[in-house]
Predict the structure.
Amino acid sequence: MNELLIAQLGKEALKTALLVAGPALAVSLVVGLVVSVFQVVTSLQDQTIAFVPKVVAVMAVVALSFPWMLQIMLRFTTRMFTDFNAVVRQLN
C-alpha cells in the first residue's frame, strides 16, 4: 500500500509539472525549429538569432498563461497539504 501511494503522489507531481512547463517548452521547441530553418535558408550562424526569439516567445507564453499555471500549481499544493495527515497515516 505504501509503494502504491508514493507512486500515485509521484505520478500526480509529474503530471502537474508537465502541465505547468508544457506550454513554454512547446513554444520554445517550435520557435527554435523555425529559427533554425531560417538560419539554414539564410546561412546566418549567429547564436543570438536563435536565443533572443526563444526567450521572448517563452516569456510571452509564461506571461499569458501564468494565471492558468498558478491555478494548476495551487490546486496541487492545496491537495497535498489537505491530504497530508491521511498520507502520513497510511505510510505508517
